[in-house]
Amino acid sequence: MALPPTPPDKMSFWEHLQELRVRIVRSLLIVAVVFAFTYAIRFRLWTWAQKPFLEAMARQTGKAVADLQPFAFTDLTEPFFSMMRLSLWAAAFLAAPFLFYQVWAFIRPGLLPKERRLVIPFVVVTSGCFLAGAAFAYTQAFKFLGDILFQEAAKAGLRANLHVSDYLDLFISTTLITGVMFELPVLFFFLAKFRIVTARLMLKYWRHATMAILIFSAFFTPGDVVVTTIFFSVVLLGLYFVSVAVAWFAEPRPRK
Questions:
Q1: In Å, how far are 9, 102, 104, 256 from 12, measured between CA atoms?
Q2: Taking phi first (over 0 means left), then psi (-120 to 50 degrees means alpha), and beta for anything else, what does residue 223 get?
Q3: d(CA 61, CA 255)
Q4: 5 is a domain residue
Q5: Which of 77, 80, 126, 211 has its Cβ near the most Cβ atoms within 10 Å?
C-alpha cells in the first residue's frame, strides 16, 4: 500500500529544495515557450521598444519620427544577440502571471488555510502591479528621460549614433526596475500582515525611508543624470505612502 503524501506543513528541508527545483524548472519552461513566440515577432518588438525615444528625439530635433535613424552597430553579432535578449525579456514579462503563481505555490505550504485561498488575488495583484510599473516606465519614464537626454544633446549640437545594445540596457533596466518598484505595496501588505511593520511605524520613519529611497535611486536607476534620480525618488516616495495605506488595511485588528 502506498504511503500518503507528506503534508505541506511537515515537509523536510530537502523536500522544500525539491519543491523549489520543480518551481524553477516550470518557470523556465513557460518562459521558453513564450520566448518561441516573442522571438518570432522580435522586429515588431524592436520597433515598439525604440518608439518612446524616437518620439522624444523628434520633439527635441523637430524632425519626423520616420526620418530618424539614430541606431547603428559596430559588431556583426550585436543585432542578433540584441534581438534575442529583447525577445527573452519580453517573454519573461508576458509570463509574469505564471511566474508569480510559481512564487505563491512555493510559499503556500507555510501559510494558514485561510491565507492559502488568496492565491488568485495574489497573482492578479502582483502581476498587475508589475505590469503597471512596466507600462508607467514605457509611457511616462521614457518620455521624461528622452526629453531630458535629447534636449542636452540638441543644445550641444551632437548627432545621435546609438548602439542597439546600449539602448536595450537602458530600456530593459528601466522597465524592469520600475516594475519591481511598483511591487512595494504588495511587499508591505505581507510585512504588515505578519506584524513585521505597521503603518504607524512607517509614518514615524518616513524621513529615514526618504533617505533610503534617494540612495537607492542614485545607485540603481539608469543613467547618470541627477534629474533621473529625483524623478524615480519621487515615484518611489509616492509608492511608499501608498504602501502606508496598504499596511494600515492589512494590519491584523485586535479582537474585541
A1: 9, 19, 19, 38
A2: left
A3: 64
A4: no
A5: 126
The pTM (predicted TM-score) of the whole model is 0.78
Task: Please answer whether residues 134 and 175 qualify as being in contact, where contact means their C-beta atoms are separated by less than 8 angstroms.
Answer: yes
Count how many domains the chain has.
2
* Residue listed under C-alpha cell 500500500: 1
Contacts of 99 (CB under 8 A, 6+ apart): 27, 30, 31, 92
Say how far apart CA 244 and CA 198 lie, in whole Å.
8
| Domain interval for residue 220 | 190-256
pLDDT tens-place string over residues 42-91? 999 999 999 888 888 888 777 777 777 888 888 888 889 999 999 999 99
* Alpha-carbon distance values, 230 to 127, 139, 182, 219, 239 (Å): 26, 18, 17, 12, 14
From the CB of residue 82, how many other CB atoms can be counted at a distance below 10 Å?
23
Query: Cβ-count burial of 125 within 10 angstroms (0-12 exposed, 13-18 middle, 19+ buried)?
Result: middle
Is 142 found in the same domain as 212? no
